[in-house]
Amino acid sequence: MALGASAFRVQFGVIFRTMRLALIGIAIGAASSFALASLISAMLFNTAPTDPATFAGMIALLIVVALLAGYIPARRASRVNPLVALRGN
Predict the structure, then answer these.
(1) 13-16, long-range: CB within 8 Å, 24+ apart, which pairs?
(2) In the chain, N or C terminus with fewer CB closer than 10 Å?
(3) Is the pLDDT of residue 52 over 60?
(4) Which residues, at least 6 apart from 7, have a Cβ–Cβ distance to it below 8 Å?
(5) Global pTM?
(6) Is the distance from CB of 32 to CB of 55 less than 8 angstroms?
(7) Which is more confidently placed, 30 or 82?
(8) Cα distance between residue 16 and residue 52, in whole Å
(9) Closest Cα to residue 29, out of 60, 61, 64, 59?
(10) Cα(34)–Cα(59) distance, integer angstroms
(11) What whole-number distance in Å separates Cα of residue 10 and Cα of residue 6?
């Protein structure tokens, strides 16, 4: 913001970076769990290891958590006075 970025641009940048990392992690995790479904089938009760509703629900939950994890610091970063941030402690 000290270099001319708007509050929206700062928030968008933080959330974009957070979501990019989260989506990469979710994709790797979903592919790994789908591939290793036979190993975890003994731990599941009344659910198929590759149940699409369970996979979709967990992916949606992880995306919401990642959005919150990115939005809260982004909002805080966009509210900082640039002069105070440049001045330091």
Answers:
(1) 13/74, 14/70, 14/73, 14/74, 14/77, 15/67, 15/70, 15/71, 15/74
(2) C
(3) yes
(4) 1, 78, 79
(5) 0.75
(6) no
(7) 30
(8) 27
(9) 59
(10) 13
(11) 6
How far lies 88's CA from each of 80, 82, 84, in Å?
12, 10, 6
SS3 36: coil
Q: Which two tokens stand for residue 57?
A: 């629900």
- Which are the contacts of 50, defined by CB distance < 8 A and separation ≥ 6? 34, 37
Average pLDDT for 76-89: 76
Are residues 60 and 4 in contact, defined by beta-carbon separation less than 8 angstroms? no
pLDDT at 31: 92
